[in-house]
Write a structure and sequence with these properties.
The structure is a homotetramer. By secondary structure, chain A is α/β, with parallel strands linked by helices. The first copy, chain A, has two domains: 13-251, 3-Layer(aba) Sandwich (Aspartate Aminotransferase, domain 2), CATH 3.40.640.10; 254-343, Aspartate Aminotransferase, domain 1. Helices cover 40% and strands 16% of the residues of chain A. Chain A has helices at 13-22, 34-46, 60-69, 85-88, 93-98, 114-123, 151-163, 175-182, 186-189, 221-230, 239-249, 253-274, 294-302, 335-343, and strands at residues 53-57, 76-81, 102-106, 133-140, 168-172, 197-201, 211-215, 278-279, 287-293, 308-309, 322-328. In chain A, strands 1-7-6-5-4-2-3 form a seven-stranded mixed β-sheet, with helices on both faces. Chain A is globular, with a radius of gyration of 21 Å. The two termini of chain A are 16 Å apart. Chains in contact: A-B, A-C, A-D, B-C, B-D, C-D. Chains C and D meet through helix 1, helix 3, helix 5 and helix 10 of C and helix 1, helix 3, helix 5 and helix 10 of D. Chains A, B, C, D: Residues 3-290 form the Aromatic amino acid beta-eliminating lyase/threonine aldolase domain. Chains A, B, C, D: Its cofactor is pyridoxal 5'-phosphate. Chains A, B, C, D: This is Low specificity L-threonine aldolase. Chains A, B, C, D: Homotetramer.
Chain lengths: 346, 346, 346, 346
């Protein structure tokens, strides 16, 4: 009953198999390995973007911070949701990598609206050099509250950015979960909507630790490579990053894994709903924010269930007090585990 | 015949086995996994340092830059050899992570001498705020030219640093190769000599990508953790870093690997010497800087040997022109490969 | 009729006289000039803080950014109003000087309340290394909307900061204007309330360009000196900064200047009120945010009045449309000018 | 007998007069003052560069660090003499402002030679992303050892830079002293030779604290303005910077001041030579590095002469021991003072 995060589960068999297979003989270091050729081709094909440049790093924060740094000058603003991962969970890495750019937060409990983004952009960049310049827009897909922007919503947000001539970054730590939720193509969710650079997550959906950064504008390639090395994120034995990503993409393993995670989350949601639980946000991918009585939380904890309390109060309070929790289904969760979890609501 | 680098070979069987074994079920992320407990205990035991704090990152540059940043204020100088890895091969990562500290180079073709270090330190920090402050000393062991500081030499360098009350960092990307070359203990090569923090390399000697940063002063723990996350070097699925290091240390695999690499390098050196080659530096670990005729280089290249030319001229010139090369033996190189390589000298 | 800003007026006669007097012979550079001794003693006396360390820089942004950098680690949050000068008008200088600290904004149209500050702090620093650490609180006195925190309010804000063990910075670009508005002592407005470091403004209130940074904790001295030089804010011919500040403080010239500015602002407010203008914030020092009909704006502009429109619409719209303006009285404004300005309302 | 530095003397009468004249009424802040228009036109005329963009800052370190930051990416190398001011006397400001670029030092006791520069550049930028990229060349004119590059030498150094497509910065903290020493035009000493950006010093040669940064490529304007504000170097009451520079340039006051300083230095050199002193570098502008017996140093110190000892030993040693000193003549030094100084050699 492990619902704490999709960053705590195992790697996909296809990923691990490919890593093992890669562990033979010598391979050119620093991204010149042949597996990376294969990964590059695969990602270009997936994104229908034959000119795209593709790089691998090992953490989602590295992907985001490096991608943004290529678009955000130190005197610029990065526009994002106030609950974006880059704002809440990266310990100022975007500020560090950009040399001190400022995150300008769109005031929203979850998804940004085009109107909210427009209003926020409108207030910045109007004071000459005093207030700095407008910079990139960063969109988190799946959001940190488990919501998924529709393709229409992505188009609308990008249109706002483009109306100010601002580049757009997509933090796709849960890219696959969003994709299968929407049933659209990677191209529709990115460059066709107006996205310039994507953090294409692998770690949360079944890799050991690998994320791709995909630039649709090849002109950014050299700068990224220098920033990656300077940030100490260039792997010498790069084949082990390549192999993870190759195993992740091969045969659509990534889509299967996300489909499984999302379906299990839906199964969990259905069970919770039947048990009378409330939902803070309508679950759309593999994350569930739900509220139910304290005495059930207590029962689950006693039974060894692992998940993050989203509201305090577990330690004391009325047994019927409703407390929120975040439940995340990773690719490896089973319906048996979910059934066991739900059994405590009876 | 792959002698290009020890960062291009495969991982040790013990490392890969442990990584595979770790790939089951859920594990707490971000370094709270149980394998990290085991690694911490093992490294403390190896270093005879029960108070040491131990962290894992995935690249040697990350280990160096983060370790140094904990000791180098932005207005300070870091003293190192002019051929140190942090100076030559990290694309300004130390400057980036420290917020702009300056590397002050000791003018030497290879190892720093206590006199040279003293002279360099003496010229800095004498201009009040104008020239900034003296900061940490960084020693590369094995050096980038394949030399190994003796324990006496390390003691003498640290004594110079301590006479100015400066902390000492040891870049041990090839820590194991140095250790087996010296036959001393890890403690003698580090804290007993006066070293404050070590980059304890795993990648070059048989891991996929993992390095430990070992602080002998536990007071640095919190700062490192924050810097690591801010630098985007904190792994969520940290168990896969832990497992590498656990497999690396288990049963002395790391020492065996380094012993093998060093012995093979010695075997290669003996063969080269017999064939009349010269040596730029006396080989002491697993790196060989040697000079031999261009026509032999040509023959080796035609036969598919891979190594770095250290001097230009391969493309044209007199057949007997002596050209230098760097040959690195990793743990997986075989005497068969070396024999094959040497056969082209006949 | 110049009400654009208090940074566009001339220097006080006492300031200019002292600068002229200082222009003779040689003087030790970099702050070792004898006038600086006098300034240091004067500021310590004014603040009743014999241990305080005092430095001069030439711009308010330098004072703020350097003072904050001494208290904000790169992985920390700085708490301030969303309309603070450090947020809106310093082009990311605080982020630059701190190495990438994040400004966390208290959502308020003007002054922070203790409750608002508490709520904001409470949401940060709760995610371990992921979200970074809580850092200093910065209070702007006079606020950018012309309001003045009472001594009680300052005490309450500092108490919130201290309850989290956080240091407090006071951006006193208009320190004198606030002081004479409150009628309290500098000590009451700073260290007695719990402020750790003050940007003590001179420029806006009658200097050419000088601000003092006053640390009540002498332990910060060395770090500030190094940061100041590294930031290129250490003047060689420092006596000309010292002389400005000496002339500013001598005989209470600074208090007279602020009193004059505040009184003239009050005079302007009275006239505007009589003319039916509205006020966005109740004016408390030398800044007036007021709203009146577009046709009067037009008349004033035609007559050469200079001030910042706070709301757009001057170019077109109904003549009776109410549009906001910011009017600032500097020390040199005259009642004649104000009368002339008000005459256009008739 | 004040020969410590040309940063410790008074301001020129023409400078102070203009500052006083500027102190009336209101003026647009932040560089929009009418005097800046005049300064811009004057500097463009002086440099025969009608397209040049011109900015003012208050310190030489600010001019250098900001100018370089516009040309040096964080992952690049800045090439300069190992005794350059940016290396020795700016407390890592160039590293700070550039975001961590590395200074690569040309090993020379004073002036760089084209061969030395070429050799240094040649060793960098050859390691792909590992070693970072080659960046701007910075030339100090007058050097920190009092030497002046001839126009031919400047042309040759710039030609080396241009052969690598690298931009060139000239640190002209003593621009005027070099110019009158050479008898060439400002254009010949800068853009005609291949210089892209100049720190045009005012402070050392008779201003209170002002330096111009002159870009011959107008495309750099916007970036500089943003960097200047972000660095906290944009003055609100900018007219007082403009007025200094206007008074400095008016009627050739700057050239007269430098001529006087250089002539007095030559007079001092002649006297020293006659008295048997040695010279470490052949004096060419207003700085003199000379060696004479300790007992004369002692006599001078007892008589109140102020200058920097360049070699230790004043406190003890043989009376005849030769010790070096740095003697700097500023514009205000008089032959009487020099005669008095020289009288102690008798």
């Amino acid at each position: 009953m492990y619902f704490s995060s999709d960053n705590a589960g195992p790697a996909l068999p296809s990923v691990m198999a490919r890593v093992n297979a890669a562990n033979t003989g010598f391979a050119l270091p620093y991204g010149a390995d042949p597996i990376m050729e294969e990964v590059r081709a695969a990602i270009r094909a997936i994104f229908e973007a034959p000119e795209a440049v593709v790089y691998l790093v090992a953490t989602g924060t590295a992907a985001n911070a490096l991608a943004l740094a290529c678009y955000a000058q130190p005197w610029q603003m990065v526009f994002c949701s106030q609950v974006a991962h880059i704002q809440e969970d990266e310990c100022n890495a975007p500020e560090f990598y950009s040399g001190g750019a400022k995150l300008c937060l769109v005031d929203t409990p979850d998804k940004m609206t085009p109107e909210g983004l427009h209003a926020r952009i409108e207030t910045e960049g109007v004071r000459g050099v005093h207030g700095g310049e407008r910079g990139p827009v960063s969109i988190t897909q799946v959001t940190e509250r488990g919501s998924v922007y529709t393709v229409e919503e992505l188009n609308a947000l990008c249109a706002v950015a483009k109306s100010y001539d601002l580049p757009v970054h997509l933090d796709g730590a849960r890219f696959a979960n969003a994709l299968v939720a929407l049933g659209c193509t990677p191209a529709e969710m990115t460059w066709k909507a107006g996205v310039d650079v994507v953090s294409f997550g692998g770690t949360k959906n079944g890799c050991l630790g690998v994320e791709a950064v995909v630039f649709f504008d090849p002109a950014k390639a050299r700068e990224f490579e220098l920033r990656r090395k300077r940030g100490a994120h260039l792997f010498s034995k790069h084949r082990f990053l390549s192999a993870q990503m190759a195993g992740y993409l091969a045969g659509g393993a990534w889509l299967e894994a996300a489909k499984s995670a999302n379906e299990n989350a839906a199964y969990l949601v259905a069970g919770l709903r039947a048990a009378g639980a409330e939902f803070l946000h309508e679950p759309q991918a593999n994350m569930v924010f739900t509220r139910f009585p304290r005495h059930i939380h207590q029962r689950l904890h006693d039974a060894g269930a692992a998940y993050n309390m989203w509201e305090p109060g577990l330690e004391s309070g009325a047994p019927d007090a409703l407390l929120a929790a975040r439940l995340v289904c990773d690719w490896s969760i089973t319906t048996d585990q979910i059934d066991l979890f739900l059994s405590h609501f009876a």
